[in-house]
Design brief:
By secondary structure, the chain is of the alpha/beta class. Helices cover 48% and strands 12% of the residues. It is globular. The model has no long low-confidence stretch (mean pLDDT 95). The protein binds (2S,3S)-3-hydroxy-2-methylbutanoyl-COA. Residues 478-571, 606-691 form the 3-hydroxyacyl-CoA dehydrogenase C-terminal domain.
């Protein structure tokens, strides 16, 4: 027995307890302990049934991801799972928290499963570039049916206990003490004369008619929605094996497919992304004894799109929040927008009407700063003008209680200047939400020169409470994400002027894996926004740095993107993007102004120009200390800009290409295209030293 697994006798029932904080991951000691415990229970003539529980906050949350990529250590999880399912004494898994991945697979190999009503079960392996590798693709379809199993395995999204009950993944709900409930259920089994009920022997749901069509349809849908991704298609292959092969052969096929995923570079990228996100939560140099301030109530200044999105974040986290606006009708508009956003979720079935009312009850509207006196945190989300911010922060400084956290949602102004509008700059921090704030997970936490450790720690803790992926960034134009995306968008526009079309640029980058093409993104966020930022940047250009002019021509023609119906694209019925017939002439004019002749551009050049621009700027950002670590930059781009997780993020991707190759191309661009392509000194140093971003 290992110290991570305890075997006790409770009368004629063997009680197996897994205790491996923080999430009972199925590391080697847990696997060895489970195998030994079930083998001992099997061999003990006094034992007639087995109950499996986990200590701490959750049932096993999966294999130990830290072991991936290292030499495998016996026993393997399939070996453990097989011993559990083939035991001759009935076993009961008692599920609480999140039974995920290998954890759920262990539960599926038990003969019965009972769960707390607030538990969740899922097979999220696909999010790590893998597939369930311990029987999940063979056993889940046998309980929940092929269609539900495919949905769960290909999406990786867990289901809640009521749905798990509906789909036969759990047998009944339990309340109260896990062990007592497990023992009572096992005793009832024995009293009823029930023995093992092996999931692997329940074949009716994988032998139904029409499964081949169902699987073919799923394959086509996934190919369209997730082009280029390896493991989702392998997940479908594995579930298909469950419909074609007996369990034993299906398990062999599953293992083959699992190993193919394990060896895929996409798996390495996605596991990098998983740990990078958790690493980002750690702030270097923060004194260990710093205590975050408690946030019991919040306020948001400004009821526009961003402000209301932020209000919803607080309400969703159960934090009472006041929305301040300057007039009654502006305030009412904001509150109406909050209500209509929730109503849309209720209509979609993702939120109950009761929950909507509960959350709306947490939101109140105010017109006077005096009403903000008790707020623990105030987030300003007003118009991006330093003068407007000054007025807001001077009022906040005069009315908020000592110790209140004063946050700005600014995306482009200098947080240190904003902090200086107050007598308490140490309490000022940036909380850069991404639109729509109640949907996008990324939160850039901007650390000002004067921001105190306590306020920074409070902001990071608040971000976690708001279910955001919080990343600390420093003060500069665009912080990290936008500063890099400026370079990326600029290259996209230069490429248009050099000869590419918007459709070609966007198609090339979508084929790379970006969620949306850069020009479609610009049309969506509004060309007037891009133009305003560009006008602000123009005075700070360095010698030799020019700007594309196609945007000026579009703005001059009143073409602002989706909001005006035409931008880089023309938006017909239902906002489907079509070519903008006025654009070619504008591009010819822009090219003439730059003294170039437009000519065809290769897709590879498009991808390298846009993606390497991100990488070069990120290297400068790291060199200036604006981001704490290279993986933080990856987290920002994976969670705020639609960079494909299966490529790990811009800097993980740069390492995978090889920095020498990236630098060689950047030097060529610098030769041909000038100042924007000045190679980042850090990139040059890393290449000279034979190091990677991952080695920083
Ligand atoms: N392995 C190792 N460490 C893990 C881990 C795991 N599976 N899950 C979490 N951790 C660490 C995490 O790095 C962090 O560490 C701490 O636990 C708290 O995590 C064969 C092959 C369970 C929902 O994908 O989704 O099974 O930073 O901050 O927000 O088919 O963790 O504190 O040092 O995320 O409360 C499948 C991954 C694996 C689940 C809890 N399982 N984990 O969320 O805490 S593959 C997963 C999660 C597999 C089999 C296959 C979440 C959580 P540190 P946290 P949380």
């Amino acid at each position: 027995m290992s110290d991570a697994v305890l075997l006790e006798r409770r009368g004629e029932i063997a009680l197996v307890t897994v205790d491996n904080p923080p999430v009972n991951a199925l590391g080697q000691s847990v696997r060895a302990g489970l195998l030994a415990a079930f083998q001992q229970a099997e061999a003990d003539p006094q034992v007639r049934a087995v109950v499996l529980v986990c200590a701490g906050r959750t049932f096993m949350a999966g294999a130990d991801i830290r072991e991936f990529g290292k030499p495998p250590q016996a026993p393997s999880l399939p070996e453990v799972v097989e011993a559990i399912e083939n035991a001759t004494k009935p076993s009961v898994a008692v599920i609480h928290g999140t039974a995920l991945g290998g954890g759920l697979e262990v539960a599926l190999s038990c003969h019965y499963r009972i769960a707390r009503r607030d538990a969740q079960v899922g097979l999220p392996e696909v999010k790590l570039g893998l597939l369930p590798g311990a029987g999940g693709t063979q056993r889940l379809p046998r309980l929940a049916g092929v269609e539900k199993a495919l949905d769960m395995i290909v999406s990786g999204t867990p289901i809640r206990a009521p749905e798990a009950l509906e789909f036969n993944v759990v047998d009944e709900f339990i309340d109260g003490d896990l062990v007592e409930a497990g023992l009572a259920f096992a005793q009832r089994l024995l009293a009823d004369g029930k023995g093992p009920r092996r999931t692997g022997e329940r074949n009716e749901r994988v032998q139904q008619a029409g499964l081949a069509e169902l699987i073919a349809h799923k394959r086509g849908e996934v190919q369209k929605r997730l082009p280029g991704q390896f493991s989702p298609q392998r997940c479908i292959d594995a579930v298909e094996a469950a419909t074609q092969l007996p369990l034993r052969d299906g398990l062999v096929r599953e293992r083959e497919l699992f190993m193919q995923c394990m060896e895929s570079p996409q798996r390495a990228a996605q596991i990098h992304a998983f740990f990078a996100e958790r690493e980002a939560a750690k702030v270097e140099g923060l004194a260990a004894d710093v205590l975050p301030r408690e946030v019991r109530s919040a306020a948001v200044i400004g009821g526009g799109t961003m402000g209301v999105g932020i209000v919803l974040c607080f309400a969703n986290a159960g934090i009472p929040v006041k929305l301040l606006e300057v007039s009654d009708e502006a305030l009412q508009r904001g509150l109406d927008r909050a209500r209509s956003t929730y109503a849309a979720s209720v209509a979609r079935g993702s939120l109950s009407a009761e929950e909507m009312e509960r959350r709306m009850g947490l939101i109140s509207g105010v017109l006077d700063y005096a009403a903000l006196g008790d707020a623990d945190v105030v987030v300003e989300a007003v118009f991006e003008s330093l003068d407007v911010k000054r007025q807001v922060f001077e009022r906040l400084d005069a009315t908020c209680k000592p110790g209140a956290i004063l946050a700005s949602n600014t995306s482009s102004l200098d947080l240190d200047e904003i902090a200086a509008f107050t007598q308490r700059p140490q309490d000022v921090v940036g909380l850069h939400f991404f639109s729509p704030a109640n949907v996008m997970r990324l939160l850039e936490v901007v650390r000002g020169k004067a921001t105190s450790d306590a306020v920074l720690a409070s902001a990071m803790q608040l971000g976690k409470r708001l279910k955001k992926v919080s990343v600390v960034v420093g003060v500069c134009d665009g912080f990290v994400g936008n500063r890099m995306i400026f370079q990326y968008g600029r290259q996209a526009e230069f490429l248009l002027e050099e000869g590419a079309t918007p459709a070609q640029v966007d198609r090339a980058l979508r084929a790379f894996g970006m969620a949306m093409g850069p020009l479609a993104v610009r049309d969506m966020s509004g060309l007037d926004i891009s133009h305003a930022i560009r006008s602000r940047q123009r005075p700070n250009l360095k010698p030799g740095q020019t700007l594309p002019t196609v945007l000026d021509h579009l703005i001059a023609a009143g073409m602002l993107g989706q909001k005006s119906g035409t931008g880089f694209y023309h938006y017909g019925e239902g906002r489907t993007a079509q070519d903008n017939p006025a654009l070619p002439a504008m591009l010819e004019q822009a090219a003439a102004e730059r003294g170039i002749t437009r000519a065809p551009v290769e897709d590879e050049e498009i991808v390298e120009r846009c993606i390497y621009a991100l990488i070069n700027e990120a290297a400068n950002i790291l060199d200036e200390g604006i981001a704490q670590r290279a993986s933080d930059v990856d987290v920002i781009f994976l969670n705020g800009y639609g960079f494909p997780a299966w490529r790990g993020g811009p800097l993980f991707y740069a390492d995978s290409v090889g920095l020498a190759r990236v630098l060689e191309r950047i030097r060529e661009f610098h030769q041909r295209l000038g100042a924007w392509w000045q190679p980042a000194p850090l990139l040059e140093r890393l290449v000279a030293e034979g190091r990677r971003f991952a080695d920083l």
